[in-house]
Amino acid sequence: MVSALSTVFSANAQSANLFPPASVVGFAGPTSTGAEPEIVATAPRAPFLSDYFPLVHPDIPLGGNASFDSSKHWGSLSPAISNRPDSFATYLVNSSALIPPRCELLEVHMLHRHGARYPSSIETVSTLGARIANATGKFTATGEMAFLTSWKYGLGAEILTPFGRKQLFDLGVSWRIKYGHLLDKFPNGTLPVFRTTSQDRMVKSALNFAAGFFGIPYENQYHQEIIIEGAPAGVAGNNTLSPTCKNLIVSLLNSAAPIAKWQSIYLANATARINAQVQGINFTFADVGNMQSLCAYETVAVGYSDWCKLFTVEEWEGFEYTSDFTYWYGFAWGAPTAAAMGVGWVQELVARLTHTPITVWNTSTNSTLDSNPLTFPVNQSLIPCINSIGIASFTLGQRTVMVALNFTSFAKSGPLPVDHIPVGKRSFVASQTTPFATALVAQVVNCTDSSANTKPYIRWLLNDASIPVDNIPGCGKDEYGRCPLDSFVDAMKTRVEEINFAPPNAPGA
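Structure for Phosphoglycerate mutase-like protein, as requested:
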């Protein structure tokens, strides 16, 4: 008698014979490769990401402002596009991803957010879906809300959406075109080490990046380091890409009341307007806020969302501002734990910039991985790190790292009020600083002056726009955002000493 399991094995074997891989089929034709590209040093203009293909752009906001693109105002739920070169300082108008004149690229370091994902488990958009599903047949909807009678909640949770996978693949391709030339600096037989964390969307982001950067198959072209995220009790889990902090939950809980207050202000008209078109369900301010989130999540998941057309320009600006102050007080300059959570990555950066192994283990650095030159090389010219976002991860990556790096230009306009949008340009806007697929990049360059003297510098880009570093001791203003490398390293060593990771006689971060 043939078992069902034997039948499966037999079918799989037959399939393998019918569908052999390319390596078995052969006949590949010519496969010679060309020189590695370095567009940031060879092109007259920098590449500029400005669209979200293949997503359908949201409908015109209620009121008919055709020039307003709400997808650029979804805060941390916006897909990343290139920021204008002068986004963060007016004197940086000549700055972009291009290497400054008379400079040679030596190294590139990147801290990157994962691509677009489904809602996280702690978000409440699914509860709105459940409320509507439970009221099926018990409500009527007219006008702009007429779609609700056939709408069903269909989003997953936590993992990358198809568009999110594309974002990371495209990033890998763009990095190969921008920085592929750095691969020539690796000695024969030495493979790059890319890092990520163990959460599914982090690993898949890293693998899609690798597929774009190396092409398929990519498995034997680099080493993928996966650091445990959310380690259970008794398992060593120090992780600079996803540091943990018991005081973080306090920051998040403290933001709940201000969010509710702000929603009652900026969504007052929208809630009344929507409830007037639906009989049988009474939507709260929080429900209507979730409708705005559904617009963003459905768009990046299935390409289009009917929820987007329900809101005015002012209401989308209010939604974006909710993201701004949530992240300001949860993970950035308004969060007491932010610098302490980001300092471990800064220690790793100093080790790489100075090509000196870490020897002191007093933060979120991992003494097992970071002390091993195979898992933490300090002489690698290409270093991408994919980190996460949400309650237990990139929370805590890029935004807290920017605080630890002392990029105070983002804090220039000061603490954000939670009952109104400040007048004028804000220095911290989540859709510019932390959208899906954000890339924080450090370029190390060697520059020659008019007297033929050479000097190494470091410059920082956030989604292709230079970050001003003139507040950092020894840096000063520079139209390309450069800082002498020695000065920057000295300032970061001092900064690390200033940040109190675990205060004596007090709860540790």
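Residues 262 and 419 are 5 Å apart (CA to CA).
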